[in-house]
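User: Structure please.
Assistant: Input sequence and predicted structure:
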Amino acid sequence: MPFESLGFVPLGLVFRVLLLSVAVVAGIYDWRYRRIPNLLCLAGLVAGFTSHCGLGAMNGGWAGCVAGLMVAAKGFGLAALIYFVLYLLRGMGAGDVKLMAALGCIAGPMNWFLLFLATAILGGVVAACLSLAHGRFYSTLLNVGQIVKELSLLRAPFKNQPQIDLHHKAALRAPHGTLIAVAALFLIVARWL
């Protein structure tokens, strides 16, 4: 079943360039400094809203501009909601939330969801490799089971298992912004091919 029949629309060139620009700069910065600049996230948000509005206006006047703003707002809202929950569960940093909200604004909700899935799969692979490399694969599997159990009981997992908190000194961490950038690059290349 093609992606388009599920509501996924191909990203235009402007949006692909914006998405890759913001994601790659954030990925490099996160790799090097382990943080994502607020100014970059703000620039991504402004670029997402203005480009959706501008291109919408070119194709449909005022109604097109409003429709473009709605696409950007929905992408922003979906990304911010999902990543804010992950932030509250202490599985993501605040910079990751802001970056994904900006990318959601640029990509729109359905394309952002593909980016989210690709990032989650890539993150799982990297987490498995990282835990294997540090000899902590078994304990990581136990932690995943504990997370699932606590979430099924509607409890925050980090309260009973402090080692799964992103900020815990023993936590294994990978720069999530870099994973997002690699996933964005993969998706754009895959859709182009």
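Confidence is low (pLDDT under 50) at residues 1-7.
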